[in-house]
Records
---
Amino acid sequence: MIAVAGLAVAGLALAGCAGGSSGDSTGDAGADAKPYVALISKGFQHQFWQAVKAGAEQAAEEFDVEVTFEGPDTEADVDQQIQMLQTALDKSPAAIGIAALDSQAVAPLLQQAQDADIPVIAFDSGVDSDIPLTTASTDNKAAAAEAAKHMADAVGHSGKVALVVHDQTSVTGRDRRDGFVEYLEKNEPDIEIVDIQYGGGDQAKSADLAKTIIAAHPDLKGIYGSNEGSAIGVVQAVKELGISPDQLVVIGFDSGKAQIDAINDGLMLGAITQNPVGIGYETVKAAVAAINGDTLPDTIDTGFYWYDKTNIDDPKIQAVLYE
């Protein structure tokens, strides 16, 4: 099990998170108004983002700021996210947080924020820009390497494996792909990666991709899904095809009830869980520091854990699972 930073905020109870998620206050709304921090996530369809939102609201209450938290309908809706970011900037917030679906597409708006002296905090996924003052996120390459290590052990250090990744446009998508691939290439010469497909984090599309991969490689020994939607899509494919967990190892990333159930039912070996409450909390905390003119580190590592049936009930794991 990997135990890393962020446990102090990981233990924040989601049910107890309340705060300023109403969002009409702006950065220049008057001397008596609370500072307004606009957060644009990658979506709302996964429980992960609800947990990030809960952490953000906890920090908003603690640091006495107003926050809004929104995201596009799916993690493939780059244009919708860009529009949300533009709308947020038009409200002149005191600071803005962005989890970019496409790190290149957001670049002009990040420049717009910088030109308007609006501090930018990246969260969950960094961007290809030096404009964000910091990035609050999991070390996704290290986390993906941990997933690859467990995959190698599970398949006996030989055979064919594949990846279903949520995207190749976000830093998160690339890091979770590259960390997994690079670990196997460096440490497991007898494991062959036969395919990498991109499902946009959509369960149905990821299930279809997994079925196609399995049909093309009937001797496949393992599939890695790089986020909640990808992993559950793979599990759904395996269930529909009636493949035994003894024949095909499934390893995921993130948490959520469906993955927890899949692990408890033996359909998924295990997964990496992030600290989503901590991501939300640290993003707002960093935004407040930026508003106050404080110096921030380049990155804020919010931590990760490997969890499976053997440790899923451990209190440290339970603190960072989200359902």
---
Amino acid sequence: MATLLTNWLPISCLLVTVFGVVTPSPTPFAGPGPNPVSVPIGGNSWATSTTGKPARISKEGLSNWSSSSCTIDTYVRFEQPGTLALSINLRVPSGKSRIRVTVLDQSKEIDVQGDILTSYALGEWNIAKPGYVKIRLQGLAKTGRVYAEATDFGLSGEAVDEQTAFVRTNDGNFFYWGRRGPSVHLNYPMPAGVEAEWFYNEVTVPIGNDVIGSYYMATGFGEGYFGMQVNSTTERRILFSVWSPFQTDDPKQIPDDQKIRLVRKGPGVTTNEFGNEGAGGQSFLRYNWQAGQTYAFLLHAQSEADGYTAYTAYFRTPNATVWQLIASFKRPKTKTYLKSLHSFLENFEPETGNIQREAGFSNQWVRSNKGQWHELTTMRFTGDNTARKAYRMDYAGGLTNGRFFLRNCGFFDVNTPLNATFTRPAQHQPPPIDFSTLP
């Protein structure tokens, strides 16, 4: 039961909440009111701290919540207005704590103690409109080492229904995938009868959207992908990878006759094998690309007599006249032109899955095996399994200022229906490329 703390000076601790989650089953939360559900902290929360270490969010829930500068946020999307009754499952390993919960700028405080996991009622709020709602916890005072350890929130009330969106279970490791956020794609239909040897695309990341963990993939094809990343505060990469035809996540399991072969690479380019999402050959150039500038990507595919297809990737910086070779790989047991052309935007860092990012994609062209350019002006918008399962609905794509765009993460309210199609204005001017000068 909650107990009152008296004669305490509040400790200035800002902890945006969703506490950690013990791998919960998708059974209803035993809370008051209609439509009770359990929202696991491990798949829906983020902890940050201005000083010191933040609290830990793991699949088991919230732990190490001790810093007075720590914040933790949990996000849930509601599809209908109405009352929301909120509770939380937590324990206090030692001592007593006072905790504040804030929803829609309205705060309530409770006093907690006891080292047995207990459900505490947090109060009721009114959800006025559809969209994402942030649940924030603040640690105000404590006598023990940590404010509390928590596993999940209980939601019930008129606002809760089957369309209430959050990561419901860790089945399929979805706490990890859900915290990464939804990946979104642009799929470019190929003109009928065209055998594409070359694929050209341009990418612009708006200022402020170069978030750590982002991959802005420009020229995707059936056997690989090519684009640019933000890897850390000090490193950015131009990344080109080709999958082996052998199905595995471990590159060491690939037979020699199905390994991706490096033909050549550009100056400063690192090449190696990759795994964990299929496996194959990878190359990257460390390059400090800048938000707000437009970069060009060019990809070539050529079938060879030995049963291989060679894929070669080139990159060009703004206002440059010379293309940089990234790498050329040969894929065995493959005889094809470029197929399944696409672009995508993904976040590969779960700790930044609560931050919005966006990219623009413009001036898409293919050049056929007959030397003819064809402009790609139509795209179909799709998402990954996190989006399709409606675990995360902060995704969008479409057309803006004459170019396609993708947006994800950050828990924005207005999304784009999956499988929607868009057509951009045609430019009617192929990219000026002198193929005889390519390295």
